[in-house]
Amino acid sequence: MSNRVAIVDLGSNSCRMSIFEIDGESYRPVYEVKQNVRLAEGMTGNRRLTDASVERAIACLRQFVRQGALHDVDEWMPVATAALRQAENGDDVRRKIEQDTGLRFRILTGEEEARYGFLGVVNTMPIQNAVIFDIGGASSEIALMRDRALIRAASLPYGALNLREMFGRYGEQACVRMASDRAAEALAEHAWVQEGELLPLIGLGGTARALAKLFLAETHRKTPRLHGFELPASYVEVKLKQLQQMSVNKRRKMKGIAKHRAEIITTGLAVLATFVRTLKPPSLFVSRCGIREGLLFERMLGSADPVVPSVLEFSVRNFQRHFRIDRAAAGAVADMAMRLGAELSQRLNLDASDRLVLWTAAQLEGAGAFVHPERWRDHAAYLVLHSDLYGLRPAEWQLVAQVVRFDHRDPRAKKLSLLLRLSRWLALELGVEPHEVSRVKGGEIQIETGRRIQDIAEDTADAKVADDIRKALQITCSFRESGSAALSSAR
């Protein structure tokens, strides 16, 4: 029985809602919305949330409640973070918000906030060891992950918005310097952070996403999504120095910076630059998944340690349920692909990444029929690129889309797509089992079955794959009936 759950994250700068349809241990994103409410604006000094910021939050949440009703939400999971956590009038504000919206908020501790960010990352990114950070409006969370386990977590009481309010009156250069010093002092209180030295940094939140968008615009690159995107850690200092020399109005016109973030981007980057100087990471990764996805996985898996054993396998199974892929057929093709990949590994120079891409493509290619059986390859490629598929590096994920489309423009994609076609032909159209691929000798795949497959091979839908793979990869298929000494090659 499916259940629609709305997860609301009321932050210091923005408020977000994600609606998911949960069915057992699978889920489907239904709706997502964000609004910039600046709840922590004006809180610096007396540590009280202002009436204006509270009214902005209430107006936003009322709209979220209406949108949730329109999407048949069964269950609400509203959480609030640093603004309500730090404010002296936080309890009063929470009661007013609950009275005016009907939503019952749970105020996360800093450590809980960091843990949910970790859960959002560990269940959607194929990284074993890293330091995870989330620079918010009024706090910054940092967590150490080793062997996909949360080791330590902490929350610093400084973020892009409150640092701007604290030091903005001193001018841009001084503001950035003072924000960096304050972040460094807070970070120094957690000696364990040094254990993350030289590990990759994974960034959640608007500061990390804005930095990645600036990098993409500056390098004239494109990516279908930011999740998992990698950029050099050295870029943080370079961009911070450039941005702090520009006016806020000029920053507002830059591609990659939202207008509401133009004023606070430098204080957010000042915190991030402090992390980079302290930890000296080799690279920086961006995660689009964070607190809301962490709450989702805890709600869905229902264990004290809601971490999936394999990000890719879990994501593939979820993708298959979502797009109603026949798992028996997909498994048959994948098993054949793995058999052929193992036998042809040396001849075709296949590495572990190639085999992973081939396996994933075999499991997901059937998704195209969910849209329509005609042009199913194009539909499958689109769904791969624009759905929640996790567990691959960005280059591998985009290669999977090329392979399911049978795209021959890239040599690597051509090789793997031909192997996928051959696997489909053997497993689905001819009914060959992996163990019937008796051996590969030179450039010949020898198949021994109890049936005279050679009599029907040329009449099957994709019989042309035999010629295509012979011409492109110099590989032929030979069939032999069990007990017969004669071999017949597919031409």
UniProtKB/TrEMBL annotation:
Cross-referenced InterPro entries: ATPase_NBD (IPR043129), GppA/Ppx_hydrolase (IPR050273), Ppx_GppA_C (IPR048950), Ppx_GppA_N (IPR003695), PyroPPase_GppA_Ppx (IPR030673)
Alphabetical UniProt keywords: Hydrolase
Protein name per its UniProtKB record: Ppx/GppA phosphatase
Domain Ppx/GppA phosphatase N-terminal, residue spans: 19-301
Keyword Hydrolase in annotation: yes
Top-level taxon: Bacteria
Record GO biological process: regulation of transcription by RNA polymerase II
Gene Ontology MF terms: hydrolase activity
